[in-house]
Recover the amino acids of this structure.
């Protein structure tokens, strides 16, 4: 049971029996299976395609608005010139509204379909260990759908998912070169002062991406880099941008290195000089950052905090960091080291689940495997953890203090979910067949004495056994 | 989840950004003096550009520094004069009105003691009140409450903190219990179900019991975010375009906080956080992104004033941010992470109508590290002044437990009347 809650997404009907005899072995076996690709996602558009689709719709809508406005103006001028001013404003607003209805934003259905497929992967996973890894790394390298909704789901499939059991270096290269990240952290317009475009002085350098790579993605804050390193690294990354969607129906929205924006010359980052080899210069810095000893410690700490405890045991973190260093960041080996360490199993199950983990766990015990994405993303947002929408590049926090005051919201959500299920799910059946001996006598008692099935389900969903791991 | 059939909105993304303290027993000293002070802290996350909010229009180097991005008194959208030297962003007419009525002031060229440029460390120092980031997991507002408690001036059983949103801001975390409050949009579980879950926690998980009990007690206070005359406020909010939704959220969250603070038996101290101030690209101080956000903040202040009613006369609202932004405009018409910035104070209890600053100047040699507005006023002195003179926290506690190691940062005098 600990294996399912701590490393997975919680028990489903039948899952305890499946792994009972050898929980560690079952976890390792999940890591040895092929990469975490999503068969169901084959029909989804790539990030670039999604980006182009939304951009095209925006352009169409604008053109339509403008056309309708001009038409209305012609009519007004002909029919009622005296009412021109007020009439024109009203007509403009009507034209915009009509255009919005005629050309709806395709970003919304794309986001919802991405959310549905991701959610169902979590509901259908036997243990959910690899899905948890995807969630962890996706939050570590988060972007926000508030800024770049069209790409938010595809970004995770393209840059995160293929690498969660691969090399950290490959994930860093995929993430930092992904158009969604370049867009999210403002790199697409950044240009060197001495670049061709920079000399023309339309825009200039933007430090945002370089800083967050150092501070959040690789080395960690206060790990010894300076403001000069940030600036030099930002110069290295100039030119990393995307193909504008308007002028390229085939490749718009894809990564592109634009030499006109790139700051020429060598740059010194963390004491090492990187000769200018266009985009290779940036890749060289990223390779070094991704295998830096500080990154090993930073990532081992975060990973252990996410899976094991808010304050993970120091020997465990050191062991994972050592494996990271020894294998130059082989994430499968680092993850295995965590599963095989005795400290990972000795910790009491006191870590409070994040709202998303609790929510998926609640649905899993009922055996449901399909999700309504509108309802699901809405519920997750109510719990303070809207999917792919953290309020800063730091991602969602991962400690009890950040989430425990939301217990009241969990109660409301559990209550609403139980109301829908009360007709079809028997809480006693869930206890007997899904949770088994892991349910405390107190919970069994409370469920048994509940005044209604709905209330019994709420008590079960809210029990500490479901909230903590 | 039957009643949430909609996409997560901007508003929901912003949920988790506010918190209130419920403080049902007032300090005896304050009560004896016939006072009933309220303090609301608004944290602007992302680092506010102080020069874009309050422009030093009288500084000879101002135009040279920001060029046609500089707010000026005779611009297309003229800045609002505060005195002969400073002018307020034109998006903030309410704050300007309050300033003229001596119910608002500005602290300029201020910063916490943090001198690096990480948002997250900067917010940690701002909210924890401790110089070293990550050193503690409690906030200065919570510790100020604890200091009053240990003084015997607050009844400990009556002093509770409440957090608005699913993620409680650090500034209110700590030993004083925190209650959680978020805009109510689901039909809540029945009182009986709440009581049974609470009973279960009391037997199995005391920490969860404390968290849930806090929320139940809060519901007992009878506060709701959505006023009865607008039962479908969320539906209305969803229909609005981006910035209008942000404006509505700011006003809604701050207005709800004020409704709680105004209650006779309600909280007396609270905090709300607003995100979105990290203006790296196209900052738009006069008529873009930053102007929109400042306008939303201005609306939030107006909502607080309205909802406080008579209690506005005993209120101070402090608006603070983790650090400022670069003095120069960057390569993408925005500003990068900097140091010195502004803090706003508003409320009927203030001695307002002043810009308090030791102006450092804008010449290259006068900038911090030749790039940022140099901080000349420690933000802690402002906060200590408010806590001492408005809430009556002992100066010794302020220097030791509330802002540890700040004995050499004297509380700013005469902020409140």
């Amino acid at each position: 049971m600990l294996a399912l809650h701590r490393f997975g997404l919680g028990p489903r009907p039948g899952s305890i029996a499946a792994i009972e005899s050898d929980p560690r072995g079952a976890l390792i076996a999940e890591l040895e299976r092929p990469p975490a690709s999503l068969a169901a996602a084959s029909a989804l558009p790539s990030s670039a395609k999604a980006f182009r689709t939304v951009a095209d719709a925006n352009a169409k809508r604008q053109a339509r608005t403008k056309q309708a406005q001009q038409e209305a103006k012609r009519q007004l001028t002909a029919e009622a010139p005296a009412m021109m001013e007020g009439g024109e404003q009203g007509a403009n607003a009507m034209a915009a509204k009509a255009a919005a209805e005629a050309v709806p934003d395709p970003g919304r259905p794309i986001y919802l379909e991405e959310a549905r497929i991701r959610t169902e992967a979590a509901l259908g996973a036997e243990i959910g260990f690899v899905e948890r890894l995807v969630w962890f790394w996706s939050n570590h390298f988060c972007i926000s759908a508030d800024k770049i909704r069209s790409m938010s789901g595809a970004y995770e499939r393209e840059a995160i998912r293929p690498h969660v059991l691969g090399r950290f270096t490959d994930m860093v290269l995929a993430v930092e070169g992904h158009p969604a990240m370049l867009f999210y952290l403002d790199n697409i317009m950044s240009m060197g002062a001495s670049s061709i475009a920079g000399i023309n002085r339309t825009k200039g350098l933007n430090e945002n991406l370089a800083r967050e790579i150092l501070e959040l993605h690789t080395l960690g804050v206060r790990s010894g880099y300076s403001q000069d390193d940030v600036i030099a690294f930002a110069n290295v990354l100039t030119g990393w941008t995307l193909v504008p969607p308007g002028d390229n129906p085939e490749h718009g929205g894809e990564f592109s290195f634009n030499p006109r924006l790139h700051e020429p010359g060598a740059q010194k980052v963390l004491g090492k000089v990187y000769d200018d080899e266009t985009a290779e210069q940036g890749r060289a810095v990223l390779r070094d950052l991704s295998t830096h000893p500080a990154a090993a410690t930073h990532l081992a700490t975060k990973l252990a905090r996410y899976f094991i405890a808010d304050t993970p045991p120091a020997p465990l973190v050191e062991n994972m960091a050592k494996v990271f260093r020894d294998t130059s960041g082989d994430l499968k080996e680092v993850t295995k080291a965590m599963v095989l360490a005795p400290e990972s199993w000795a910790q009491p199950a006191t870590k409070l689940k994040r709202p998303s983990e609790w929510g998926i766990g609640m649905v899993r015990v009922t055996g449901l495997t399909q999700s309504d994405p509108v309802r699901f993303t809405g519920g997750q947002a109510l719990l303070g953890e809207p999917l792919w929408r953290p309020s800063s590049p730091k991602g969602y926090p991962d400690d009890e203090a950040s989430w425990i005051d939301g217990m009241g919201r969990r109660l409301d959500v559990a209550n609403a979910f139980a109301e829908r299920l009360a007709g079809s799910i028997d809480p006693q059946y869930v206890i007997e067949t899904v949770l088994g001996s892991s349910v405390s006598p107190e919970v069994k008692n409370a469920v048994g004495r509940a005044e209604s099935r709905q209330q019994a389900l709420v008590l079960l969903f809210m029990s500490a056994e479901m909230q903590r791991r | 989840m039957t009643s949430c059939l909609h996409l997560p909105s901007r508003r929901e993304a912003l949920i988790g950004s506010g918190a209130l303290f419920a403080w049902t027993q007032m300090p005896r000293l304050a009560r004896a003096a016939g006072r009933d002070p309220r303090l609301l802290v608004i944290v602007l996350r992302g680092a506010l550009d102080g020069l874009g909010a309050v422009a030093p229009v009288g500084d000879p180097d101002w135009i040279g520094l920001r060029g046609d991005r500089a707010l000026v008194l005779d611009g297309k959208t003229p800045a609002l004069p505060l005195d002969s030297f400073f002018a307020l962003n034109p998006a903030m007419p309410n704050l300007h009105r309050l300033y003229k009525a001596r119910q608002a002031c500005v602290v300029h060229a201020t910063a916490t003691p943090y001198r690096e440029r990480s948002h997250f460390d900067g917010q940690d120092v701002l909210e924890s009140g401790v110089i070293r980031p990550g050193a503690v997991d409690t906030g200065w507002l919570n510790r100020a409450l604890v200091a009053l408690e240990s003084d015997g001036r607050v009844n400990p059983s009556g002093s509770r903190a409440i957090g608005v949103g699913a993620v409680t801001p650090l500034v209110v975390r700590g030993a004083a219990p925190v209650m959680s409050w978020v805009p109510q949009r689901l039909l809540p579980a029945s009182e009986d179900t709440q009581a049974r879950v609470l009973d279960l926690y009391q037997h199995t998980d005391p920490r969860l019991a404390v968290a849930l009990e806090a929320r139940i007690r809060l519901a007992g206070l009878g506060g709701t975010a959505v006023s009865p005359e607008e039962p479908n406020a969320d539906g209305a909010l969803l229909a609005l375009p981006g910035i209008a939704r942000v404006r509505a959220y700011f006003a809604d969250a701050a207005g709800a906080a004020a409704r709680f603070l105004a209650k006779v038996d309600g909280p007396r101290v609270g905090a709300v956080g607003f995100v979105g101030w990290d203006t790296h690209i196209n900052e738009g101080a006069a008529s873009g992104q930053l102007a929109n956000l400042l306008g939303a903040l201005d609306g939030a202040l107006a909502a607080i004033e309205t909802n406080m009613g008579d209690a506005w006369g005993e209120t101070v609202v402090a608006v603070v941010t983790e650090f400022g932004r670069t003095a120069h405009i960057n390569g993408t018409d925005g500003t990068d992470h900097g140091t010195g910035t502004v803090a706003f104070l508003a409320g009927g209890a203030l001695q307002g109508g002043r810009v308090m600053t030791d102006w450092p100047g804008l010449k290259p040699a006068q900038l911090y590290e030749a790039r940022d507005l140099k901080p000349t006023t420690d933000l802690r002195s402002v906060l200590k002044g408010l806590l001492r003179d408005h809430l009556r926290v002992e100066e010794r506690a302020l220097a030791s437990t509330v802002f540890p190691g700040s004995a050499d940062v004297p509380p700013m005098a005469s902020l409140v009347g």
Observations:
- Chain B has one domain: 11-184+224-402.
- Chain B has 14 helices and 13 strands.
